[in-house]
């Protein structure tokens, strides 16, 4: 079922979310987070999909084409939500698409292992779209936990078709599409069982029916609209104004009827209408689940593991050990492949040099293109690709297993203390792979204030591009370079300590921002701890390599190539007999010495703005005055060169601190500008870590000098 992927990823250009006319029968795909909705979407659409943002929102909505027996479905994968009451941007997008997106039907995906909670969304969807198919997923996991779902009984109770599948194994997909075809082909939609609200609420909604029918023109259910207006949902009137060109807030007869209906509700003792509606939905979901699960649900079996992974006494040490293990595997596993890749790419460079000589190309052209653009590109690829190819799959395996939400649970209290959102723990974890990806991930945070805090502090944790510099400095100056397994372990532990410093600073700066520029209290949110699942290793490898490793590598290469040209020009264009690079390093040297570095190191970080991976090579090039990025035969040779140019343990320590806390790379800065749409916040995201890094380096260098340690 695959053609070619048109666009993927957060930065992909995509057409508007609303499907075009004639694109096939439009079906909305809804569901709670972690129910396998995206797995089903991918299984049905293959590669015929693209991603875009709902107009006016930074919430991604994916579309895909599914062909079945000559019928073309346009599936719209709505963001995972727990309800349609529009308490978040994701809920508002899902609700508005069901209301105004032109869908001819809906499929609501449920988790068979926790059906009752999922039925809440099913019942809300049925109030909006009667042509709804309920898809009970993860039947294989339910069977392992001895949970039996009575699908026919649930279908009879709800009044709509119910199909059971196992999307991960692609079992039951034919039955699902057949049921969907029958549902959408029927001349009349089914009549779902309505949620029964208290009589006073039903009477108040009925009193508005005639008024609303004349204004909605059959485009929305009058009963559902009346309940939302009575509840006072602030997000609905703007949507009605935009989609129906009708503003209920300026409709005087309607406002008078609403005031009278609310007075009647208050007289009947209904003070908190939102709470009454929610409790009615919960009760209806419980009744439906009791029909579908006559024997009751079995325990999930993960309680014992959760006690280990989420208790503060054991969860935090376990988290640190897992982080150290991932880093150790990344360090140990990437050394040899990186050497092989470097040798291969630099062999290609020699062949390119032979080609330029054979063509008789001028020396400056060879230098700019081969020694500048290609050499920097080769260095970035050889340094980045092996660790990313190890780190991302390991990280994705933990995500697939269900561990990352436990990390967010453990860190939630600390983020609450910092007056930030606990979801920031998840975006911070994403930053370990790529800070730009972490910034995009901040969209999951609903509060604009807390989202800004998460964006501004995401670069305080080191991304994959800074790991090579940190690992090399740790090995050369603190644990040794003989290559014993214990040295790899010591490097991983020290790198873990460096990362912990970044995490602590994330908390501290988040608290500082929430008490100054971004004042406010942390918002409440629901954090689901999904059931543990056996990771799908094959899918994890494919997804992490294609969607993460190659995506990040391609983005880094795109900025590294022109950076190579700029670096070569700075090193080879002379003014007064001295290269531009040497002029700049000389100018920066007093400031660098003051903070425990030197001008060469500061200039390397400035030129490394496009990609952090090229900082060490630029330092080598400057010290050797070769005019091109240099490679070294070993870390021992590199250490000798650095020591010969005045490096001490203090220089290495300050360079590590500055590598941890300095301006984000160019890709991350562009992402921040796109997400915040503000030059001011983008500049602050640069100034915050850079200022902190300079201050820390100055403090450490001053203390070391006062104590006579250097």
Give an overview in words.
The protein is of the alpha/beta class and 710 residues long. Helix content is 63%, strand content 7%. It contains 29 helices and 9 strands. A 7-stranded mixed β-sheet has the order 2-3-4-1-5-6-7, with helices on both faces. A two-stranded antiparallel ribbon has the order 8-9. Helix 23 packs across helix 24, helix 27 packs antiparallel against helix 29 and helix 28 crosses helix 29 (679-706). The protein is elongated. Mean pLDDT is 82; it is low at 1-17 and 50-58.
Concise summary:
By secondary structure, the protein is of the alpha/beta class. It has helices spanning 37-45, 89-100, 115-128, 139-144, 151-158, 173-185, 199-207, 209-216, 222-231, 236-244, 252-267, 273-292, 303-310, 312-359, 363-401, 404-417, 424-433, 435-441, 448-457, 467-479, 485-515, 537-572, 580-594, 599-607, 615-624, 635-644, 649-660, 666-676, 679-706, and strands spanning 25-31, 49-53, 60-68, 71-77, 105-111, 132-137, 162-164, 574-575, 578-579.
């Amino acid at each position: 079922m695959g053609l070619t992927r048109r666009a993927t990823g957060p930065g992909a250009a995509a057409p508007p979310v609303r499907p075009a006319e004639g694109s096939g029968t439009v079906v909305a795909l809804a569901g709670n987070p972690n129910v396998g909705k995206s797995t089903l979407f991918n299984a049905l659409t293959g590669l015929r999909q693209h991603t875009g943002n709902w107009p006016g929102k930074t919430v991604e909505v994916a579309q895909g084409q599914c062909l079945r027996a000559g019928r073309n479905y346009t599936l719209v994968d709505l963001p995972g939500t727990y309800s349609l009451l529009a308490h978040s941007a994701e809920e508002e997008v899902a609700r508005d698409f069901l209301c105004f997106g032109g869908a001819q039907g809906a499929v609501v995906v449920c988790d068979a292992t926790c059906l009752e909670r999922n039925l809440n969304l099913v019942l809300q969807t049925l109030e909006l779209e009667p042509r709804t198919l309920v898809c009970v997923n993860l039947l294989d996991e339910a069977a392992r936990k001895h949970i039996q779902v009575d699908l026919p009984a649930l279908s009879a109770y709800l009044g709509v078709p119910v199909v059971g599948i196992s999307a991960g194994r692609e079992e039951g997909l034919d039955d699902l599409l057949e049921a969907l075809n029958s549902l959408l082909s029927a001349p009349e939609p089914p009549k779902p069982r309505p949620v029964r609200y208290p009589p006073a609420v039903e009477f108040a909604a009925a009193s508005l029916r005639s008024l609303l029918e004349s204004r909605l023109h059959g485009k929305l259910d009058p009963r559902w609209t009346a309940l939302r207006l009575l509840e006072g949902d602030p997000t609905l009137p703007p949507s009605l104004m935009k989609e129906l060109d009708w503003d209920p807030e300026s409709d005087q007869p309607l406002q008078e009827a609403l005031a009278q209906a609310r007075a009647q509700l208050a007289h009947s003792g209904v003070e908190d209408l939102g709470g009454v509606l929610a409790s009615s939905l919960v009760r209806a979901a419980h009744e439906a689940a009791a029909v579908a699960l006559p024997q009751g649900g079995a325990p999930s079996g993960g309680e014992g593991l959760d006690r280990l992974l989420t208790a503060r006494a054991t969860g935090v040490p376990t988290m640190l050990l897992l982080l150290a293990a991932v880093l150790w595997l990344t360090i140990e596993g990437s050394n040899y492949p990186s050497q092989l890749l470097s040798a291969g790419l630099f062999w290609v460079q020699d062949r390119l040099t032979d080609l330029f000589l054979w063509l008789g190309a001028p020396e400056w052209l060879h230098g700019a293109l081969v020694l500048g653009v290609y050499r920097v590109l080769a260095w970035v690829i050889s340094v980045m690709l092996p660790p990313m190819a190890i780190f991302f799959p390991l990280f994705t395996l933990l995500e697939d297993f269900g561990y990352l939400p436990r990390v967010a649970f453990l860190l939630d209290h600390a983020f609450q203390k910092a007056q930030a959102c606990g979801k920031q723990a998840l975006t911070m974890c994403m930053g370990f792979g790529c800070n730009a990806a972490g910034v995009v991930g901040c969209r999951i945070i609903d509060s604009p204030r807390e989202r800004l805090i998460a964006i501004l502090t995401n670069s305080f944790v080191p991304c994959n591009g800074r790991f090579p510099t940190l690992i090399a400095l740790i090995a050369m100056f603190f644990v040794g370079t003989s290559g014993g397994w214990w040295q790899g372990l010591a490097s991983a532990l020290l790198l873990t300590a460096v990362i912990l410093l970044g995490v602590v600073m994330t908390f501290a700066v988040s608290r500082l921002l929430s008490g100054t520029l971004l004042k406010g209290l942390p918002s409440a949110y629901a954090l689901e701890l999904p059931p543990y699942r056996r990771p799908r290793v094959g899918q994890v490898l494919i997804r992490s390599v294609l969607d993460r490793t190659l995506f990040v590598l391609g983005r880094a290469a795109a900025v590294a190539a022109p950076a190579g040209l700029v670096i070569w020009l700075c090193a080879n264009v002379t003014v007064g007999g001295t290269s531009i690079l040497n002029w700049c390093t000389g100018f920066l040297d007093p400031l660098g010495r003051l903070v425990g570095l030197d001008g060469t190191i500061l200039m390397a970080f400035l030129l490394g703005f496009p990609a952090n991976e090229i900082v060490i090579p630029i330092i080598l090039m400057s010290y050797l005055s070769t005019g091109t990025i240099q490679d070294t035969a070993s870390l021992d040779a590199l250490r000798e060169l650095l020591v010969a140019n005045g490096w001490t343990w203090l220089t290495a320590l300050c360079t590590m601190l500055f590598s941890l806390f300095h301006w984000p790379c160019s890709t991350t800065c562009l992402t921040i500008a796109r997400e915040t749409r503000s030059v001011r916040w983008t500049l602050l995201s640069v100034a915050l870590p850079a200022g902190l890094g300079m201050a820390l380096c100055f403090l450490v260098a001053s203390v070391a000098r006062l104590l006579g340690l250097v």
